[in-house]
Amino acid sequence: MARYTGPKTKISRIFGEPILGNGKWLSKNSNPPGQHGALRKRKQMGEYALQLREKQKAKYTYGLLEKQFRRTFDEAARRKGVTGENLIKLLEARLDNTVFRMGIAPSRPAARQLVSHKHVTVNGEVVNVPSFQLKAGDVVSLKEKSKDNPTVTSFVREKNPKFGWLDFNAGTFTGTFITYPERDSVPENIKEQLIVELYSK
Questions:
Q1: In the chain, which residues have pLDDT < 70?
Q2: What is the pLDDT at residue 5?
């Protein structure tokens, strides 16, 4: 299963944002990575560089590699509506992202691991594919055996009330994907229009 396994702090320092992890190291050292990072001035980026940067940021944020991200974009372009908004909706509807948003896992990589290790069910059936696309009304839950596993349940927390497109009951470890989110309700700092422009070249 392809995923990024490199240094997380380095990626966060490249973008100057805590896109992987809690960003505690950014307060200590927000310079670009590398031996001469503190001395190197950030150059004014051109149009293509800005577009590529946004694509890379989205890929690292949601834990996708290039081929999978391109397939997701192509699906977003096929759907009716604004392509950039469709892209964000599809990324948010991934099973691993939803498990993270609901509060079942503390991070997207942890959510991906829960899913791939068969701890999560969708509508009562075990699903071990992190990229599984949820639809409105799908019920996501921990497997019954996993609910009694303190290692699995120790990280469960209440859902952030900002995520109104999800419902989650921390007592029963069960939630519902109510609908696709509107773009302004997704907190990620991603300029999806730049990604659309990049792939439209």
A1: 1-3, 21-43
A2: 72
Q: What is the pLDDT of residue 52?
A: 94
Q: Give the span between the Cα atoms of 95 and 62, in whole angstroms.
A: 11
Domains 8-90 and 95-181 share a fold: no
Sequence spans of domains, the chain = 8-90, 95-181
| Residues 136-172: b if buried by 16+ CB within 10 A, e if exposed | eebebbbbeebeeeeebeeebeebeeebebbebeeee
For residues 134 and 98, the answer to whether their CB atoms sit within 8 Å is yes
Instruction: Give the integer Cα–Cα distance in Å for 186 and 119.
Output: 26
**Cβ contacts of 128 within 8 Å, gap of 6 or more:** 115, 116, 117, 118, 120
Query: Are 95 and 84 a contacting pair, CB within 8 Å?
Result: no
Please state, in angstroms and rounded to a whole number, the distance separating the CA atoms of residues 190 and 57: 7
Task: Assess contact for 98 and 140: CB atoms under 8 A.
Answer: yes
Please tell me the CATH code under which domain 95-181 is placed.
3.10.290.10
Residue 19's pLDDT is 75
Class at the top of the CATH hierarchy for domain 8-90: mainly alpha
